[in-house]
Write a structure and sequence with these properties.
Helix content is 31%, strand content 25%. It is of the alpha/beta class and 270 residues long.
Length: 270
């Protein structure tokens, strides 16, 4: 496993002329707009990167972008991978491990999620303070990759308290309404039943989605500082209503300017 990660990172180092990113960013459903704010130096299609998975979703463009945001060197995944696409959790986490070898010390992640907290409204942003893993496993199962981290990594603080506090200050400064809470990750691709929403709320989750958790587990294994934020694309409490996936994508895109502004200023301050 490490050999493949190293080969892919070496390929990218060669292609980007030793451009060493400081921050890795994963852009989720309908959240690709941040790309327009990047001073792009290099852009590679996932299809051209050895061993890189390919996104099967139309809303995920599938490019790895190297450049600058507010004079910070970044590498940005314009589209991510999901377990429900048929990828193993190790394959889902593969790009994060590659980015670590490229030099990142911080990881910022966005996603779309259903809101189960009755205080949440459609279109809200929720800063992740913790998560619950409901995937069938995690990317650390199997032989440990000693070159990346220890056998038993601590998950006491999966999301940096420093970055959570800073993001809340940024949101206040930018007059962006912000929520915070616990995200639960499930494999999908089906949305949850009313009984499942009730169960997930009982066990402590405020929002539910199909990503993020595997990537964060892999990132914390490598001792990266992490921040994640969800767009609440639908509400999953009270009288549950049918949800159309296109409506979810539309809500994500409508809220994109808020998340883009939050990420840009957070990157400027970290």
């Amino acid at each position: 496993m490490f050999k493949q990660i190293k080969e892919t990172s070496d390929f990218l180092i060669d292609k980007t002329v030793d451009f060493k990113p400081q921050i890795g960013i994963i852009l989720g459903t309908g959240l690709g707009g941040l790309v327009s704010d990047i001073d792009v130096k290099f852009e590679l299609s996932y299809a051209d990167i050895p061993a890189f998975p390919l996104s099967t979703l139309e809303s995920h463009k599938g490019n790895l972008i190297f450049g600058y945001i507010n004079n910070k060197r970044v590498v940005v995944m314009q589209g991510r991978f999901h377990h429900y696409e048929g990828y193993t959790l190790n394959e889902v986490a593969f790009p994060v491990r590659v980015m670590k070898l490229l030099g990142i010390e911080k990881l910022l992640v966005s996603n779309a999620a259903g809101g189960m907290n009755p205080d949440f409204e459609k279109g809200d942003l929720m800063i992740l303070t913790d998560h619950i893993n409901q995937f069938p496993g995690n990317p650390l199962i199997g032989e440990n990759i000693d070159e990346l981290g220890s056998r038993f990594p601590d998950m006491y603080q999966p999301y940096s308290k420093k970055y959570v506090a800073l993001a809340k200050k940024v949101a206040k400064d930018l007059d962006i309404k912000i929520q915070e809470g616990v995200y639960v990750g499930l494999p999908g691709p089906m949305l949850e039943t009313p009984a499942e929403y009730k169960f997930l709320r009982i066990i402590g989750a405020d929002a539910v989605g199909m990503s993020t958790v595997p990537e964060i587990i892999a990132a914390k294994h490598m001792e990266l500082s992490c921040f994640a934020c969800s767009i609440i694309t639908d509400v999953c409490y009270g009288e549950i209503q049918p949800v159309d996936i296109q409506d979810i994508i539309s809500t994500a895109m409508n809220s994109e300017p808020k998340l883009t502004a939050l990420f840009k200023e957070l990157i400027n301050r970290i």
